[in-house]
Amino acid sequence: MKHKTEGKRLTRKLTALRQDAWRLMHAPMAAQHRWFAAVLRGHYGYYGRPHNYQRSTDPIGKCTGNGYGV
Known about the structure:
Blueprint: H1 7-23, H2 29-47, H3 53-56, H4 58-65
């Protein structure tokens, strides 16, 4: 049986990521990197399920595509 992350949950998380990244926009790059690394570690720990690869990699593409300093 394959698992898929619920769309509403993913959208909520990505919206929160964008807001937090905007807040950190003028922070030093090292602080931004530490924050994003911690967020992604937590994300993969929670959503990282077998056969859920596409959904679990969505935040990387969303964050890097918006120029948030990753």
